[in-house]
Amino acid sequence: MSTQPLPLDGVTVVAVEQAVAAPFATRQLADLGARVIKIERPDGGDFARGYDTAARGLASHFVWCNRGKESVAIDLKDPRGLAVVRQLVGEADVFVQNLAQGAAARLGLDAATLCAGHPRLVAVDISGYGAEGPYAHKRAYDMLVQCEAGLVSVTGTPGQPVKAGIPAADIAAAMYAFSGVLAALLRRATTGRGGPVEVSMLDALTEWMGHPLHHGMHGGGSPARTGLAHSVIAPYDAYATADGERVLLSVQNDREWRRLAGQVLEQPELADDPAFATNAARTANRERTDAVVARALGVLTGKEALAALDAAGIACARLNTVADVAAHPQLAARDRWREVESPVGALRALLPPITLPGGAEPRMGAVPALGEHTDATLRALGMTDEQTAALRRDGVIA
Asked: Which of these, 13, 297, 314, 336, has the minimum number of CB atoms within 10 Å of its CB?
């Protein structure tokens, strides 16, 4: 049986992008087969290239978000460079940008302008707070949007709010931009027209605030910050084991509590004790509940505790480090790791979460060097070597 092609084979994407939100969105498109032409500044490129040097000299953010793309370094402030980008857009299926609010419109690269001139184009504007309103022109870094969306208010301990350890606002916007592109391409397949797609980081992350937001709006108040615990479920936390590990467990109903009490805590009488028999009682007596669980798990190793909880049918997990995740047996067993090429050699990378059985494997292409594809791209547009050399001499390209 022949293998199905990647779903975005033949789709060309032009992206004027930086940092995480737009690059992570277009990386999803590249993994699914699209050709992604990444437009970067000649003087350093996407500023995420300079965030760190952890990936053998390359920035970890950049490696994560930019595999499988072609890097074309062009100065958009020079009319000659802007003309090249407009020519590329004219031949593209999708355009994505996340410049500072208003910058794309000044260049004529906003979604509305581009779609008016190219009816089949799907053009995406990713912003921090949207195109209108009092926050439209505020700087919108991930941490700031996490605060504005209320995520920080429900994350952390009772005494200390904390931001998420990953760029949650950027990732949320990226995934809605990705799905927005797919939806718009599907619509184009039936109508022949593309159209603008707008995604803001605030809208995306506020949608992800669904449970605490609805809990608060409809009379329940703002959920308390409880660290690894749960505000309305007990036991639900991480507990130390004899060998220094921390094991998390979650009891979702009273049947599970009965099994935990009898098979793991070895105190079956707690199943009917009024102080523990119901979730409401356990939550009201959270300190006593946690103390009982902590004593039982504290004499076991992490491996023994997980085995006992699994045998009793109790949801549980290790509190893994990043190194633990990189060596996770489940990822290894399912063959989820690959290597991608880069300017510093092969780098380990995780397969994208979308799996299409019977189809070609995702196209996990190389991480590009700055301007690696500039000459080839301009040559394909019909530019001569002399013209390209002149642009490079003037600093318009790199």
From this structure: 336
